[in-house]
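hey
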C-alpha cells in the first residue's frame, strides 16, 4: 500500500503536492504576490487571497469569517503587540469576553501581555489594569498595562468614566436621584410604599437606606 509523502517543511505535516511541498507552501515558496488580507504573509493563489483565506471566501462569503486560524492569536501577540513601542491602542481582533476584554478560550490575554511586559503579578489578587481605560474595548497595548489591586483598578475606572456602578449598569432600575430620595424618606415613608413606587423589592430599599446595598458609594 502506497504511503503519501508529507511536506518537506519542518512541522508542517500536510501531504506533499509538488516539489516536496504541500499546496500552501508550494504557492508560498514559488514566489508571487502575497495574500491581500492585512497581516497575512502567505502567497496569493486566487482572487488575491492565500489558500486558507480563499477557502473562507468560498465557505463563508468573506475571507475573514470563521474564527482565527490555529496559532493566529499567538502570532498576533508575538508579531504585532510585543514589538509595538507606540502609545495608540492596539485593538484585539479576535475573541473577547462578555465585557469586551481580549480572551482566547479561558486565557485572559491582557494578563499574558502584562506579565511579558512587566514581569509576574505581585500576587494572585493583582489585575492587569489599563492606563488608557480602553480594556473593555479590547485594547492590548503593552505600555497601557500594569499590575494593580482590585481597589486601585476600580478607582481608575472612576477616573476613566468606565465604571459600571449605579445607573450606568445595564440592569439598573434606579437613578442616583432616586436613591437620594429613598434615603431622604427613611423614617418618613414606609419601605413597602417606596418599593412599590420604584418597582423594586423591600430589601433593596432597606439596603439603600442603611447603605448596605449596591449604592453604598453614593453620598
Amino acid at each position: 500500500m502506497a504511503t503519501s509523502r508529507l511536506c518537506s517543511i519542518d512541522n508542517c505535516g500536510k501531504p506533499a503536492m509538488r516539489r516536496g511541498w504541500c499546496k500552501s507552501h508550494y504557492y508560498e515558496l514559488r514566489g508571487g504576490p502575497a495574500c491581500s488580507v492585512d497581516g497575512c504573509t502567505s502567497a496569493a493563489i486566487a482572487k488575491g487571497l492565500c489558500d486558507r483565506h480563499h477557502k473562507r471566501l468560498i465557505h463563508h462569503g468573506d475571507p475573514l469569517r470563521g474564527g482565527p486560524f490555529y496559532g493566529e492569536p499567538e502570532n498576533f501577540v508575538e508579531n504585532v503587540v510585543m514589538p509595538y513601542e507606540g502609545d495608540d491602542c492596539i485593538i484585539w481582533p479576535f475573541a473577547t469576553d462578555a465585557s469586551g476584554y481580549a480572551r482566547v478560550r479561558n486565557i485572559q490575554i491582557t494578563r499574558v501581555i502584562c506579565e511579558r511586559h512587566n514581569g509576574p503579578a505581585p500576587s494572585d489578587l493583582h489585575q492587569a489594569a489599563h492606563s488608557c481605560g480602553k480594556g473593555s474595548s479590547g485594547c492590548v497595548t503593552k505600555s497601557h498595562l500594569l499590575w494593580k489591586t482590585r481597589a486601585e483598578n476600580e478607582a481608575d475606572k472612576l477616573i476613566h468614566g468606565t465604571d459600571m456602578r449605579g445607573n450606568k449598569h445595564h440592569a439598573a432600575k434606579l437613578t442616583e436621584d432616586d436613591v437620594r430620595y429613598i434615603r431622604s424618606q427613611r423614617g418618613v415613608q414606609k419601605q413597602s410604599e417606596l418599593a412599590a413606587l420604584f418597582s423594586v423589592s423591600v430589601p433593596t430599599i432597606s439596603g439603600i437606606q442603611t447603605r448596605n446595598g449596591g449604592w453604598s458609594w453614593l453620598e
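The two ends are 81 Å apart (CA to CA). DSSP finds eight helices and four strands in the chain.
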